[in-house]
Amino acid sequence: MTTVIKDFRPQGFGGQYLPKDMVFKVPEDLNMWVKRPAGHYYLPLMFNISAGITVNILRYPTPGVIGRHVHDGPVFSYTIEGAWYYPEHDWVADAGTFIWEPPGEMHTLTVKESMMAFYVMHGGLTSLDENDNPISVSNCLTLLGDCDEYYQANGFGADYIKQFIR
Predict the structure, then answer these.
(1) Lowest-confidence segment of 16-20, 81-85, 143-147 by average pLDDT
(2) Which end of the chain has fewer beta carbons closer than 10 Å to its terminal beta carbon, N or C?
(3) What DSSP character marks residue 160?
C-alpha cells in the first residue's frame, strides 16, 4: 500500500503567507520565564494578536496569589504539576486537571505550595480591588508588551518576543 501525503496549503500567493508551525520546548531555566508582580513566573508560548488569544504557562515555585480578577472571554487550563484553586469554588485543580472558566466569573487564583499550569486565555482580564472595582486591565497586547520589556531588559534582544507572535 502506498501512502500519499498531500500539502493542503493553498496554491500561489495565499499559501506563501500562512504562519509556520510553532515548536517551543518549555525551559527549566527560570531566567527565560517572565517574573510577574505577584511573584510567579509567566512563560509565553503564543500571542495570537489578531484573535486576542494568549497561550502561556504559569509557574509558582512557592505559595502565592493572583489577586481577584474577571475574564471577558473563556479561559482553558490544564494543571501540569502541583495544585491551585479559587477560594470562591469548592474544587482544587491538581496535576492532570482540566478547567474551563466562563467569561464574567470573578475569582482569585491561589497556590498553597507550588504549581505549573498551561493556559489559553481568550480576551483579557480585569483586576479587581476588595470592593470588586476595576483597578487594571491585561490582555494579549499588554502581556506581549510586558514580556517584550522583560526579555529586552534581560539581554534576550529586541527580536526575541517575535517568535511567540502569530
Answers:
(1) 16-20
(2) N
(3) G
What pTM was computed for the model?
Answer: 0.87
Q: Cell numbers at residue 103, please?
A: 467569561
| Alpha carbon distance 6, 22 (integer Å) | 20
Give the cell for residue 154: 534581560
Report the pLDDT value the prediction gives residue 6, as an integer from 0 to 100.
Answer: 56
Q: Is 33 left (phi over 0), alpha (psi -120 to 50) or beta?
A: beta
The C-alpha cell 520546548 sits at 25
Q: Among 49, 53, 92, which Cα is nearest to 73's?
A: 53
Cell of 6: 498531500
**Dihedral, CA atoms, 150, 21, 50, 59, nearest 10 degrees?**
-40
